[in-house]
Amino acid sequence: PLTTGIVGLPNVGKSTLFNAITQAGAESANYPFCTIDPNVGVVEVPDERLQVLADMVNPNRIVPTAFEFVDIAGLVKGASRGEGLGNKFLSHIREVDAIAHVVRCFEDENITHVAGQVDPISDIETINLELILADLETVEKRLERTKKNLKSGEKKFQLEYEVVERIQKALESEKPARSVELDEDERSLIKDLHLLTMKPVLYVANVSEDDVSNFDQNPYVQKVKEYANHEGAEVIVISAKVESEIAELEGEDKQLFLQELGLNQSGLDRLIQAAYKLLGLITYFTAGVQEVRAWTIKKGTKAPQAAGVIHSDFEWGFIRAEVVGYEDLVASGSMNQAKEKGLLRLEGKDYVVKDGDVMHFRFNV
Ligand code: GDP
Question: Which residues contact ligand 1 via a Cβ below 6 A?
Fold first, then answer.
């Protein structure tokens, strides 16, 4: 499964946030594909559509879909030179599919800031520079190797050299690899480099508990937003401390507490949804009397592979899928009415599943 790594300098609130994630999170036991590891938190993806579907079919249970956050603590300045536990942390980042970069936007004189003062932009740049330096090393090694291969005269190596060199130039001017525009072929040439700065990023601005309701007043948040805007990244503003309090509550208590804070959704829920999107994940549903359930697939997944997420038999024995779009189903009021209106489609093995599709698979066993 795809994972999002939580990174950031020490004392910015990563552990507090990660604790909120595990506290609010799902038991891995309910999601067999999830890892059982103290550094991994399983989160359920909040999705209002589940309840709407459930109201239609009255199932025995509702099962949201889930994915994982990984806590990558301990990244410090100098990591790319092996300082702290540098290389180890960088290798952990290499394994994740997206990065949630936590930055401190709260003042608290009792909590030391590693650089002596709260300065989110400098924090972001410190971490990003470590990732860039690590990538630069990877890229330089590859260039040397490709240079040797160039002698073979194969066109593939020529192209590879050119692409890697473009990335090197970007890194040298302290820009992440993801800022380099690449087409699909070029991308596949450098995929095996597993560059850290190629991974999609979102920023998590951690504000003081006093700021949760009107964080737009917080000047640090403004700066982070400007910075992120520049690279087309999203910013999620939260108070990790408040999130850890919300995470202890459930149902009505949680709603009441959120109301008191003037929020309609917890910051954690916003973070979960943003990370899900960042990973390029979408949701399809199955809706039966047993259960109404959400399933995660990567955008672009075809029907048989989407069925395979439920069970490998569904993929191998795939015949067809009955599909109705969520909006169509809701507008029709029921599965039968959707069928009468001709909104229930039969789709074959080349059908690309869309977010919100309600699916029923036909398969051979
Ligand atoms: P990490 O080193 O990034 O994992 O940071 P921690 O989560 O351990 O947080 C460092 C310190 O900052 C702890 O004492 C937290 O209680 C405190 N902290 C985290 N978030 C907030 C916040 O939103 N407001 C305040 N005042 N303190 C916070």
Answer: 8, 10-16, 73, 106, 108, 111, 206, 208-209, 239-241
